[in-house]
């Protein structure tokens, strides 16, 4: 037994549930989280998304936009269980927040709109949970809306997500008349009047349908679970107790998904959902031991060596918060932990039980806990923390590759340093962001998972750091190349200003090269240009490559041959020949036929089959050249070569053309002639 410092009751490790709320944007995740907090007595007033009064959507941008942007952790208790819950974002631009949350969760509640069923981002988060092996139960929300249909929603779950859905409830009433559910395991009705729920006999009008669905549930469970099958064959029925045990096993192995329904907004169906979380989702003890990179394993034992994984870092006005999931052992306030990646040992100044933006100090965190700690300076998302005398490195969450970029700069030069500090802090908090300085354009480029992701990031920098930021499209790094060169181009550099002067005479051929590199050769005979001056001419030519004649872009793909030249006994020098080489090539390029090159990327687009035509048309409009396509289980993978300048904004356009279900990756492949 483990004592909770904030409560008088105790919680065995078997009573801990670490779960996330997953769904498409606007399916009702945050409203459901608010009702869970209200039903468990954690809050005494129901927060509303449209009023900006929710506990988990506490950031000003979340309240302004009415969507969840940052994963928020809360804790509550229900029927002798501690539930550590993370409300995750539903917008595709913030999928990395979901990824990092799923890495440390033991289970999840997938929320579906009772009218829309499975939506595009529902598929994405479901696949993310599949990759992490996270057991789920499904909650079909908004059953009070016009057009809500539990059977249609379940059919979409089966057809698009491919689990075995096991429906354990039957709605009482439809749309505005939705008042409760029939519990098919115990064949009783749960009817809500305001915030109170009554347990009643099944209404006469629904009795036959309830019995029919109970029979279907028994048959479906018996097909999947040996103990249920044995009882079904022997008794021709399956008891509620056996069904509960079988549903628990099937949920935890991922062989099936329990489906419940309700209306979070009207506070109907929340209590049975909490009962299902306690009954079916696993505790930390039900999961296999975590395995380190060296094969070492740690079980969920509070008495074992300490091991935890950082999944979120947040800089607040009162200090740096490091959110972590404890997998093994116990950490006390004032204790020390090792970051095995850096070898740094740090002291935990405080341990906090998190309630979104509110925190409650505790003295101890043990295996199974999700807490925030204060005092760590170097830990980042994905960092393993462990006991100094028992090193362990856990697999970090996978960080997605950014797909959209913008150029950012302060409006005044005085804010340059502050902008750099702000961007460094934002990248520390959100690993999906990448900041780089483009050497060729001189721009500071901010990259992320989508245009909304970057918009939120820039607004956060403006609000939190009081910066006036200008945002623009990144400049494309063009190149110039020689199409038709010149031969025998002579340049004489003479400078006389008293004392030793400068003299250099060179004759060069300029031609396109076979590759993209710069080639320099010497064909001078008879020692007319000494070898040390030849090297100086090459250096001067390389200097001239930085600024082409068309637009000052770097020049590539040419071959320069030094064919002749002459020297002066006193005035020739390496500096003079370097200068001659630079100006000779500059003027020779102006006399040549030069073409502009633009960067090209190979784009791999994965889209549903029904959207292939729209995607191909859009790629063609972006001057893309289709390289090939492959069909894969309901999707098509299209490969194309597309100019980089045409990819700005493509992520948003692709999502709109594929209902959010299309994804793409790109990699630079070189340069191609730009249109005149």
UniProtKB/TrEMBL annotation:
<dbReference type="InterPro" id="IPR005225">
    <property type="entry name" value="Small_GTP-bd"/>
</dbReference>
<dbReference type="InterPro" id="IPR000795">
    <property type="entry name" value="T_Tr_GTP-bd_dom"/>
</dbReference>
<dbReference type="Pfam" id="PF03144">
    <property type="entry name" value="GTP_EFTU_D2"/>
</dbReference>
<feature type="domain" description="Tr-type G">
    <location>
        <begin position="14"/>
        <end position="285"/>
    </location>
</feature>
<feature type="binding site">
    <location>
        <begin position="23"/>
        <end position="30"/>
    </location>
    <ligand>
        <name>GTP</name>
    </ligand>
</feature>
<dbReference type="InterPro" id="IPR035649">
    <property type="entry name" value="EFG_V"/>
</dbReference>
<feature type="binding site">
    <location>
        <begin position="87"/>
        <end position="91"/>
    </location>
    <ligand>
        <name>GTP</name>
    </ligand>
</feature>
<dbReference type="InterPro" id="IPR005517">
    <property type="entry name" value="Transl_elong_EFG/EF2_IV"/>
</dbReference>
<dbReference type="Pfam" id="PF00009">
    <property type="entry name" value="GTP_EFTU"/>
</dbReference>
<dbReference type="InterPro" id="IPR041095">
    <property type="entry name" value="EFG_II"/>
</dbReference>
<dbReference type="InterPro" id="IPR009022">
    <property type="entry name" value="EFG_III"/>
</dbReference>
<dbReference type="InterPro" id="IPR004540">
    <property type="entry name" value="Transl_elong_EFG/EF2"/>
</dbReference>
<comment type="function">
    <text>Catalyzes the GTP-dependent ribosomal translocation step during translation elongation. During this step, the ribosome changes from the pre-translocational (PRE) to the post-translocational (POST) state as the newly formed A-site-bound peptidyl-tRNA and P-site-bound deacylated tRNA move to the P and E sites, respectively. Catalyzes the coordinated movement of the two tRNA molecules, the mRNA and conformational changes in the ribosome.</text>
</comment>
<keyword id="KW-0648">Protein biosynthesis</keyword>
<dbReference type="InterPro" id="IPR000640">
    <property type="entry name" value="EFG_V-like"/>
</dbReference>
<keyword id="KW-0251">Elongation factor</keyword>
<dbReference type="InterPro" id="IPR014721">
    <property type="entry name" value="Ribsml_uS5_D2-typ_fold_subgr"/>
</dbReference>
<keyword id="KW-0342">GTP-binding</keyword>
<dbReference type="Pfam" id="PF14492">
    <property type="entry name" value="EFG_III"/>
</dbReference>
<dbReference type="InterPro" id="IPR009000">
    <property type="entry name" value="Transl_B-barrel_sf"/>
</dbReference>
<keyword id="KW-0963">Cytoplasm</keyword>
<dbReference type="GO" id="GO:0032790">
    <property type="term" value="P:ribosome disassembly"/>
</dbReference>
<dbReference type="Pfam" id="PF03764">
    <property type="entry name" value="EFG_IV"/>
</dbReference>
<dbReference type="InterPro" id="IPR027417">
    <property type="entry name" value="P-loop_NTPase"/>
</dbReference>
<dbReference type="InterPro" id="IPR047872">
    <property type="entry name" value="EFG_IV"/>
</dbReference>
<dbReference type="InterPro" id="IPR020568">
    <property type="entry name" value="Ribosomal_Su5_D2-typ_SF"/>
</dbReference>
<dbReference type="Pfam" id="PF00679">
    <property type="entry name" value="EFG_C"/>
</dbReference>
<dbReference type="GO" id="GO:0003746">
    <property type="term" value="F:translation elongation factor activity"/>
</dbReference>
<dbReference type="GO" id="GO:0003924">
    <property type="term" value="F:GTPase activity"/>
</dbReference>
<keyword id="KW-0547">Nucleotide-binding</keyword>
<dbReference type="InterPro" id="IPR004161">
    <property type="entry name" value="EFTu-like_2"/>
</dbReference>
<protein>
    <recommendedName>
        <fullName>Elongation factor G</fullName>
    </recommendedName>
</protein>
<dbReference type="GO" id="GO:0005525">
    <property type="term" value="F:GTP binding"/>
</dbReference>
<comment type="similarity">
    <text>Belongs to the TRAFAC class translation factor GTPase superfamily. Classic translation factor GTPase family. EF-G/EF-2 subfamily.</text>
</comment>
<feature type="binding site">
    <location>
        <begin position="141"/>
        <end position="144"/>
    </location>
    <ligand>
        <name>GTP</name>
    </ligand>
</feature>
<dbReference type="InterPro" id="IPR035647">
    <property type="entry name" value="EFG_III/V"/>
</dbReference>
<dbReference type="GO" id="GO:0005737">
    <property type="term" value="C:cytoplasm"/>
</dbReference>
<dbReference type="InterPro" id="IPR031157">
    <property type="entry name" value="G_TR_CS"/>
</dbReference>
């Amino acid at each position: 037994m483990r004592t909770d410092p904030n409560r008088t009751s105790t919680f065995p490790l078997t009573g801990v549930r670490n779960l996330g709320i997953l769904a498409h944007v606007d399916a009702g995740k945050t409203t459901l989280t608010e009702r869970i907090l209200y039903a468990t007595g954690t809050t005494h007033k129901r927060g509303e998304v449209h009023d900006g009064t929710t506990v988990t959507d506490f950031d000003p941008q979340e309240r302004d936009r009415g969507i969840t942007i940052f994963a928020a952790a809360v804790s509550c208790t229900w029927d002798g269980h501690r539930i550590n819950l993370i409300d995750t974002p539903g917008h595709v631009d913030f999928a990395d927040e979901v990824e990092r949350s799923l890495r440390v969760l033991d289970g999840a509640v997938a929320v579906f709109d009772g009218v829309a069923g499975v939506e595009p981002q529902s598929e994405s988060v479901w696949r993310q949970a599949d990759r992490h092996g996270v057991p789920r139960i499904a909650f079909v929300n908004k059953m009070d809306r016009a057009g809500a249909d539990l059977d249609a929603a379940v059919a979409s779950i089966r057809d698009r997500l491919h689990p075995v859905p096991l429906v354990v409830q039957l709605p009482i009433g439809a749309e505005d008349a939705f008042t409760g559910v029939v519990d098919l395991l115990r064949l009783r009705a749960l009817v809500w009047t305001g915030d109170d729920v009554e347990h009643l006999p099944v209404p006469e009008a629904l009795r036959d349908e309830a019995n029919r669905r109970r029979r279907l549930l028994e048959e479906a469970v018996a097909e999947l679970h040996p103990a249920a099958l044995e009882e079904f064959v022997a008794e021709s029925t399956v008891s509620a107790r056996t069904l509960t045990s079988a549903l628990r096993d099937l949920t935890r192995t991922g062989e099936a998904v329990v489906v419940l329904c309700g209306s979070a907004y009207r506070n109907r169906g929340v209590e049975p959902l909490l009962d299902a979380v306690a009954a079916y989702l696993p505790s930390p003890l039900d999961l296999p031991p975590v395995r380190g990179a060296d094969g070492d394993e740690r079980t969920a034992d509070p008495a074992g060596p300490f091991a935890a994984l950082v999944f979120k870092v947040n800089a607040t006005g009162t200090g740096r918060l490091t959110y972590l999931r404890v997998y093994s052992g116990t950490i006390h306030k004032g204790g020390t932990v090792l970051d095995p990646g850096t070898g740094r040992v740090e002291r935990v100044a405080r341990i906090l039980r998190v309630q979104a933006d509110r925190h409650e100090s505790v003295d101890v965190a043990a295996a199974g806990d999700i807490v925030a700690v204060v005092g760590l300076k170097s830990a980042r998302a994905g960092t393993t923390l462990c006991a100094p005398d028992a090193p362990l490195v856990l697999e970090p969450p996978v960080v997605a590759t950014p797909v959209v970029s913008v150029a950012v700069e302060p409006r005044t030069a005085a804010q340059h340093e502050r902008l750099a500090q702000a961007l460094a802090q934002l990248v520390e908090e959100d690993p999906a962001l990448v900041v780089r300085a483009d050497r060729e354009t001189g721009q500071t480029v901010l990259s992320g998972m989508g245009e909304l992701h970057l918009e939120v990031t820039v607004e956060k920098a403006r609000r939190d750091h009081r910066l006036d930021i200008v945002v623009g499209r990144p400049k494309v790094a063009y190149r110039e190349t020689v199409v038709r060169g010149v031969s025998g181009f002579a340049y004489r550099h003479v400078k006389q200003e008293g004392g030793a002067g400068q003299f250099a005479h060179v004759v060069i051929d300029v031609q396109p090269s076979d590759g993209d590199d710069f080639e320099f050769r010497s064909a001078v005979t008879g020692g007319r240009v000494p070898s040390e001056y030849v090297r100086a001419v090459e250096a001067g030519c390389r200097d001239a490559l930085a600024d082409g004649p068309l637009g000052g872009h770097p020049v590539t793909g040419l071959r320069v041959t030094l064919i002749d030249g002459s020297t002066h006994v006193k005035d020739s020098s390496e500096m003079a020949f370097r200068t001659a080489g630079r100006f000779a090539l500059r003027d020779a390029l102006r006399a040549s036929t030069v073409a502009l090159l633009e960067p090209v990327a190979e784009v791999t687009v994965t889209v549903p089959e029904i959207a292939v035509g729209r995607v191909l048309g859009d790629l063609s409009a972006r001057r893309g050249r289709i390289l090939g396509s492959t069909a894969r289980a309901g999707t098509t993978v299209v490969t194309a070569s597309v100019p980089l300048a045409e990819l700005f904004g493509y992520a948003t356009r692709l999502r709109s053309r594929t209902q959010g279900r299309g994804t793409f990756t790109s990699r630079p492949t070189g340069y191609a002639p730009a249109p005149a």
